[in-house]
């Protein structure tokens, strides 16, 4: 009786494995038939994906070379109005490097202290910028000239010109300060 039960169990297992193999073979054959008749679709989708990947790669490589052009265009945009108003100044100059090291101020700012309590890189840059703008005579003269020109234009000009002059002054003053900040 035990042998019959064991033989029946092995027989059932054998048929189950064969049925699973048959189902797998039918499924694999169906996939082969689908691929055989749909190869143009597979080929076309592969070509489209390859073209998209190639275009994306070329676009990325092209953008690497545009970085320096963007920086140059940004500098030209910043200097556009500042150059115009500084061209009105006949003796305007770029500050020259002295032969000596940094000299100590004689009258003002002898014991200069930190402006900001928190010591961070951003606060350090702002502090240096403020101190250079207050101490350097060429920077002060250029800024005062620009303020004087626009103040006279606002006081003397007609009403419709005052608002435009104020807007142009704000933009030109900001661009000049950004140029000076980049120098510092």
UniProtKB/TrEMBL annotation:
- Give the coiled coil ranges: none
Q: Does the keyword Coiled coil apply?
A: no
Concerning InterPro entries, the annotation shows: EcsB_ABC
GO terms under cellular component:
membrane
Protein's recorded name: ABC transporter permease
Q: Which residues cross the membrane?
A: 21-42, 48-68, 143-173
Organism, as annotated: Bacillus paralicheniformis
The record's keywords, sorted A to Z, are: Membrane, Transmembrane, Transmembrane helix
Tree of life domain: Bacteria
């Amino acid at each position: 009786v035990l042998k019959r039960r064991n033989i029946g169990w092995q027989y059932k297992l054998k048929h189950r494995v064969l049925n699973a193999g048959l189902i797998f073979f039918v499924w694999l054959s169906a996939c082969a038939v689908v691929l055989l008749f749909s190869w143009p679709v597979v080929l076309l989708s592969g070509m489209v994906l390859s073209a998209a990947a190639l275009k994306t790669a070329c676009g990325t490589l092209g953008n690497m070379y545009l970085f320096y052009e963007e920086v140059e265009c940004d500098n030209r945009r910043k200097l556009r109005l500042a150059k115009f108003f500084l061209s009105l100044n006949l003796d305007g100059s770029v500050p020259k490097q002295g032969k000596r090291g940094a000299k100590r101020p004689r009258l003002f700012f002898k014991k200069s202290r930190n402006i900001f309590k928190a010591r961070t890189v951003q606060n350090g840059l702002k502090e240096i910028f403020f101190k250079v703008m207050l101490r350097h005579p060429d920077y002060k003269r250029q800024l005062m000239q620009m303020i004087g020109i626009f103040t006279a234009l606002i006081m003397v000009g007609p009403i419709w010109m005052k608002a435009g002059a104020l807007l142009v002054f704000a933009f030109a003053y900001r661009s000049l300060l950004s140029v000076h900040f980049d120098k510092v």
